[in-house]
Automatic annotation (TrEMBL):
The gene is xylB. The active site is at residue 235. Residues 252-436 form the Carbohydrate kinase FGGY C-terminal domain. PROSITE patterns: FGGY_KINASES_2. Catalyzes the phosphorylation of D-xylulose to D-xylulose 5-phosphate. It comes from the Bacteria. One of its GO terms (biological process) is D-xylose metabolic process. PANTHER family: SUGAR KINASE, XYLULOSE KINASE. This is Xylulose kinase. Pfam families: FGGY_C, FGGY_N. Belongs to the FGGY kinase family. InterPro entries: ATPase_NBD, Carb_kinase_FGGY, Carb_kinase_FGGY_CS, FGGY_C, FGGY_Carb_Kinase, FGGY_N, Xylulokinase.
Length: 484
């Protein structure tokens, strides 16, 4: 048995999986996000441990016959956070999360420092870890002075599980302290961020062992044998393991709270100016690149709140098949935008509203706007040399066939819809645990899910959507000027 723990922003998901890949059961536990000031986003790391304890106890109670066969644990986690511990391993302050924008000044200054982009392969976004520490140095110097280790969120769970300070390359790639091509901490980048190598955890590959479960936890969990804890990885890298996206040409589009278009790469091919993230994969010798739009289903949730109908009710008004672009164009910049604009100040807009514009047209415009944002990411990925032939559509948005067909046509790529089942980050984490326990090579363990349906682009409507996409692209500078 193998346990995958996926530490998300709003909750932790645990998945118990047999070595054959069969999912035995799952458990979830929620926790809160604190926003003490505008732009701040924090959590108590202790709440993550409590959530993990609750999930483990739930699985132990639900599967008493299977649980004693646990052999390995894999970890997936929200990226870019900063968990600060002192020499005793005690947390110094609440963790600063990926969606915290307070260090935007520090991020811009670090990004302009040579050779930060060249070594890290990425723009330094405000959400990354390094600018958070620069902010702390200025605003909480007493905390900064006591930092023994800086851990990413899932690696605080690892500290609880194993007692060791260990991280992995895929998660560390989002800190702006890692030489992503070399797959190791960079003394130059650390110095630029006013940090030291001894304040960083040791690094292993996501599919390698990072330590064993502490003996006290073994006893508490009713286990009489050692349990390996895999390196694990950042959530998108581990999700890619869950859907078998490891090699050049493979990719997925995720319509979740944010929108992600990810392409697996066999080589490191950064192009920071595109605002594409270039990170280490969770398996050795592989990388991945992704374009990110900060609001995807969040846009539909926002519209739902304004119109007083649930997202499902809005989506169900639309037919299964597309018939052409809406008369309204939506720019989905409700929280700013990453790829390709790297613009935290830009905001969204409806353009072309008419007195006849109804809920259905607004919903269609929102779905198209998110699809156009994903097209922006596709064009940025192409500039780096990525060549996607087809993509897997995952996330909550893939329940709308209308949205998926829109996406297929705008991207001009077939959308593969997986059959119902587990195939996300928690499964990827369990697969990494299998690899760390010697159950097989990563390419054999991390296979794609069975496809329920392939939705092709609508060739008869491609030109119409292409013309609307060009209109969408031209609107950004106009809206930026209006926001400014």
């Amino acid at each position: 048995m193998y346990l995958g723990l996926d530490l998300g922003t709003s909750g932790l998901r645990a998945l118990l999986v047999e070595a054959s890949g069969r999912v035995v059961g799952s458990a979830e536990a929620d926790y809160l996000v604190s926003h003490p000031h505008p732009g701040w986003s924090e959590q108590r790391p202790e709440d993550w441990v409590t959530a993990a304890e609750r999930c483990v106890e739930s699985l132990r109670q639900a599967f008493p016959a299977e649980w004693p066969a646990l052999r390995g644990i894999g970890l997936s986690g929200q990226m870019h956070g900063a968990v600060l511990v002192d020499a005793a391993g005690d947390v110094l302050r609440p963790a600063i999360l990926w969606n915290d924008t307070r260090p935007h000044v520090e991020a811009a200054a670090l990004d302009a420092t040579d050779p930060v982009r060249a070594l890290s392969g990425n723009i330094v976004f405000p959400g990354f870890t390094a600018p958070k520490l620069l902010w702390l140095e200025q605003h909480e110097p007493e905390v900064f002075a006591r930092i023994h280790k800086v851990l990413l969120p899932k690696d605080y769970l690892r500290l609880w599980l194993t007692g060791g300070y260990v991280g992995d390359m895929s998660d560390a790639a989002g800190t702006s302290w890692l030489d992503v091509g070399v797959r190791d901490w960079s003394d130059t980048l650390l110095q630029a961020g006013h940090m030291r190598r001894d304040q960083m955890p040791d690094l292993v590959e996501g599919s390698e062992a990072s330590g064993d479960l502490r003996s006290s936890l073994q006893a508490d969990w009713g286990l009489d044998h050692s349990v390996v804890v895999a390196g694990g990885g950042g959530d998108n890298a581990v999700a890619a393991c869950g859907v078998g996206c490891l090699s050049e040409g493979q990719g997925f589009v995720s319509l979740g709270t944010s929108g992600v278009l990810l392409a697996a790469r066999d080589r490191f091919a950064p192009m920071p100016e595109t605002a594409v993230h270039s990170f280490c994969h969770a398996v050795p010798g592989r990388w991945y690149q992704m374009g990110v739009s900060l609001a995807a289903t969040d846009c539909l949730n926002w519209l739902s709140g304004r119109l007083g109908q649930s997202p499902g009710e809005l989506a169900n008004v639309l037919p299964d098949e597309i018939t052409g672009p809406a008369g309204v164009t939506f720019l989905p910049y409700l929280s700013g935008e990453r790829t390709p604009h790297n613009d935290s100040a830009i905001r969204g807009a409806f353009v072309g509203l008419d007195i006849a514009s109804d809920n259905a047209q607004l919903t269609q415009a929102v779905m198209e706007g998110v699809a156009f944002a994903m097209r922006d990411s596709l064009e940025a990925l192409k500039a780096t040399g990525a060549d996607l032939k087809q993509v897997l559509a995952i996330g909550g948005g893939n329940r709308s066939r209308f949205w998926v067909e829109t996406l297929a046509t705008v991207l001009d790529l077939p959308m593969h819809l997986p059959k119902a089942g587990e195939f996300g980050a928690a499964l990827g984490a369990a697969r990494l645990a299998m690899a760390a326990d010697g159950q097989g090579a990563v390419d054999l363990l991390m296979t794609p899910p069975e496809v329920a349906e392939v939705i092709p682009p609508r060739s008869d409507l491609r030109d119409q959507y292409e013309a609307r996409y060009q209109t969408y692209r031209a609107l950004y500078p106009a809206i930026k000027g209006a926001v400014a």
